[in-house]
Amino acid sequence: MDYHWDWQFFFQETDDGLKYYEWVVSGLGWTTAVSLASLAVALLLGSVLGVMRTTPKRWLVAVGDTYVDVFRNVPLIVQLFLWFFVVPELVPQQMGIWMKQDLPYFVTAVVGLGLYTAARIAEQVRSGINSLPRGQRFAGLALGFTEWQTYRYVRLPMAYRIVLPALTSEAMNIFKNSAVTYAVGILELYFQYKQIIEKTSQVLEITIVVTLAYFILAFVMNRLLAFVEKRTRVPGLITGTGGK
């Protein structure tokens, strides 16, 4: 293949006075920020939905099931476009104008990615709670806990430990899924990747660098949660492999 390798182009100045490697660093920063903020939203909402789907109240189960069915079966990029283009047209006019003109793109991206991932985490949390012996709930109630206190102090702490490997996969995926947020104006890593290719045509160099960047982000998250899994593993209940 007749390809001219040129790694030094990363240190060339761009039209805005920055160097190309600074574009990569900036994109990496936005990718990390969007991913971590979305993960926080997804963990919080996904946990609530997972609990709702295991309660004795049928209407809560129905709400949780409907949410999961809708958000898991609509592609992420379509959901982002809905939040970015459609929702501002459905709300009152003044709010719609504010959403289109003043609401940071970052917020839209975090909401879209967070709500999408929450549906997946809700399924993991529900599975973890349902895998626990029913006697744990009855023991909590016998101690005088309310239904919600049994979740808070008894069932959820155990459920999280059981599903932590699955949550690790979701945490890693959220960094990769964040690439889609370029479609709503976030100057994240994939956006910068496309920009650099258009400006320089050095496809192989920037592809290798961006691939390594995504790998490092996902790998660091994997190792961090593997450490948490190892420290919180319940002997005799969970056979973990993440710490190996």
TrEMBL record:
Stored InterPro entries: AA_ABC_transptr_permease_3TM (IPR010065), ArtM/GltK/GlnP/TcyL/YhdX-like (IPR043429), MetI-like (IPR000515), MetI-like_sf (IPR035906)
Pfam families: BPD_transp_1
Chief location of this protein within or outside the cell: membrane
Location relative to the cell: Cell inner membrane; Cell membrane
Keywords of this entry: Cell membrane, Membrane, Transmembrane, Transmembrane helix, Transport
Family, as annotated: Belongs to the binding-protein-dependent transport system permease family. HisMQ subfamily.
PANTHER family: GLUTAMATE_ASPARTATE IMPORT PERMEASE PROTEIN GLTJ, MEMBRANE COMPONENT OF AMINO ACID ABC TRANSPORTER
Descriptive protein name: Amino acid ABC transporter permease
Classification lineage: Bacteria, Pseudomonadati, Pseudomonadota, Betaproteobacteria, Rhodocyclales
